[in-house]
């Protein structure tokens, strides 16, 4: 499975939605809480090349996007296809 990182805030319903979707898929992820931590927020902005909103979700260092992006992948079936490709070939990203 991919290494999943989620930059998030406990105050954001979009973060809760994204984390709940990942959990519903049985995925384990690292949550990086940016609340009250400007250095972590700056690191996220740099890593996303300027995106400032949370959540920002990465699979194996590849930016997936935010909650709406993750939901769109789920609705289209692409999320399951991506996860299947990780199961079949962990080096494919």
Short description:
The protein is an alpha+beta fold and 93 residues long.
Shape verdict: globular
- Tell me about the largest β-sheet: 4 strands, mixed
Strand order of the largest sheet: 2-1-3-4
Order of helices and strands: EHEHEEHH
Unreliable spans: none
Distance between the first and last residues' Cα: 11 Å
DSSP helical segment count: 4
Q: Find the count of extended strands (DSSP E, 2+ residues).
A: 4
Could you walk me through the main structural features you see in this protein, from its secondary elements to its overall organization?
- This protein is α+β, with helices and mostly antiparallel strands and 93 residues long.
- The chain is 46% helix and 18% strand.
- It has helices spanning 13-24, 38-47, 67-76, 78-88, and strands at residues 4-8, 30-33, 56-59, 62-65.
- It has a 4-stranded mixed β-sheet with strand order 2-1-3-4.
- α1 runs parallel beside α3.
- The longest helix has 12 residues, at 13-24.
């Amino acid at each position: 499975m991919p290494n999943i990182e989620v930059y998030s805030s406990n105050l954001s319903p979009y973060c809760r939605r994204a984390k709940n979707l990942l959990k519903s898929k049985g995925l384990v992820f690292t949550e990086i809480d940016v609340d009250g931590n400007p250095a972590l927020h700056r690191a996220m902005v740099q890593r996303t090349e300027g995106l400032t909103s949370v959540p920002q979700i990465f699979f194996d260092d590849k930016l997936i996007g935010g909650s709406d992006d993750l939901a769109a992948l789920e609705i289209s079936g692409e999320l399951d296809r991506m996860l299947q490709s990780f199961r079949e070939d962990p080096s494919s990203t």
